[in-house]
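pinning this so it doesn't scroll away 📌
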Amino acid sequence: MARGWESKDVETQQSLQNSGPGRRLSRGLSSTDRERINRRELLLLDRARLVNELDGARNERFRLQISAELNFIDRQLAQLTAEA
């Protein structure tokens, strides 16, 4: 059976997480900085997933829910940037 979108998306997320900039820069950073970088990478992955879901969503209520989640993630990313 052919691989579907979900398995390809998971594979992409794992490769991004394993080879992301935080992995190369994490040496020599404090644990707080490493946690912040890791948190940012995870938020960016969640954001990319939600943007993908929003593109395929047809139900207006579902689109509104995804938009609210995107706004929440954007606020968290802004907060992380302000803390740095």
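📌 and the second one:
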Amino acid sequence: MSKVLIVEDNATVLNLYRNALRGAGFTVHAAADGAAGLAAVSAFEPDAVLLDLVLPSMDGLTLLRRLRAEPRHAALPVVVFSNAYTAEKLNEVWKAGATQVPAKASTTPRHVIDAVRSAIAARTPEA
């Protein structure tokens, strides 16, 4: 069973996607801010991260950059999921190493599940 870490400070959004991912067969762990998310990646060792950009203590972009700076997390699939998109911010997110970047406002739980599955499948070698 694949493991997903959700880093999201909005409890309603967190619960919606945690329940959807669990219902789809994922083991899910959550962190409510960037610093806790960074610690959780090492402790939980997820197969993918669903990451909001606007977070307390450490924003999602900083968290993504710190993950990519660590060799053991350099290829970890990170689906950046936020409404904080300007053209400049979107460029920064891709440059920092996002795997996928769906927009919260126009994405359903099914889209998120599919994005996480495809990000994990792209990283996992065929058996």
